[in-house]
Amino acid sequence: MQTPFKMARSVVHESNFVEAKETSETKISAAEQEAKTRALKFYPNFKFHEDEKYFPQSIESFNINWSAATMYEKTAQVEFGDYKGTTYNSNAPIYVSYKKNSDNSFYLTYVLLFPYNGCGAKLYCKVKLLGQKIYDDHYNVCPRGEHFLDKQTVQMKFNSSEQVQTIDITYHESWWNLTKNDLSWDGNHPQIYLAKGSHASYKSSANTKYKNLYKNSANGGDNSVEMDLIDHTSNNGKYFTSSNIRLLKYGGAEATGISNEERCFGFTYYGKMGKYVSYNIAETDAYKAMRAIGNAVKKVKKNWGNNILDAADEFKGDNTQGNPGNGVADKSFWKDY
Q1: Where are the domains of the chain?
Q2: Contact between residue 195 and residue 121 where contact means Cβ atoms under 8 Å apart
C-alpha cells in the first residue's frame, strides 16, 4: 500500500450536494438518495503535480450548448481559445454516475472534466553500445498530445456490503485495473495521482512508464536500447478533495436538478474529446533524439538501428490530428452508466 497523502482531507457532509427544495415536484426518491449518499461516501481524492497548469472545471464554464446532441457527437473539433482552466478551483465538481445491480452490488463512476489537456510526458532513452553508455536522458515530447476537453475517470465496484471489489482508473486511452490494496486511502476515499499535463491517473507519486517504443539487448547487456514514454506524478502539488459531488445518473435515471450541459454528459472511459493542437513532431526533442539514436546504433547493430528509425517514423506518424469525437474507444469494458 502506498503512503497516504500527507494533507488533511476536508470533511464533506451530505449537504454539499446541490439539492432542490423539498416540494411535491422536487422531492427525490429513495433510490436517488441512496445513490447520493454512496457517491458522497466513496468519492476519490486527487493529487496534482506541483507544476500542473490545467485544472478541472464545471461543464457549464465551457460555454457550449450541448443540448442538441450528446457530448461525443459535438466535441470532435471543440476548442476554447484561451480558456484552458488555468485557475485552480477547489470547488470544481466531481461528476458521478451510480448503478445498482440485481445482487445489490453497485458501481460508482466518478469523472473530472478539464477544458485542456497539456503535455507533461517525456521520452526516456537509455542506450549502451559495446559496453559504453551513450545515452541516458529524458527528452521533451511537447506539444504532442495536447488537446482541448479532457476527462479522467475512476470507476469503483462494490459488493452488497459496500466492500470495494475493483477500482479502474484511466490513463492515455487505457486504464489500470486495481484492487483496494493497490491504493492508499483516506478513510473511504481512494487517493489518485494525476500526471503533469495529461492528468493520466496513477496509484502512486512516482514516474511511470506508460508506453515502450523500443527495447532490445544482446551480448549480456553490452549492447542495449530502451526507449519509453514516461509520465510524471508527484506528492507535492495541490490536493483536490472537492465538496461539490454532482450525481448525474442513477440506475439509468436522470438525477434531480441537473443542467442541460450535464444532461449530455457521458461516462465512458475515453478521455480525449476536443480538438488537438497542431504541431510539427519532427521539431520535438524526442523525435530528434530517436533519429540520432537510431543512426548511432545502426553503426554497431544495423537491424536495431533500422528498427529504431522505424519506431521514430511511427512516433512521427502518430501526429494526433484525427477526429477523437468519432469512433469513441471500446465501450464494452467501461460501464457507461
Answers
A1: 25-317
A2: yes
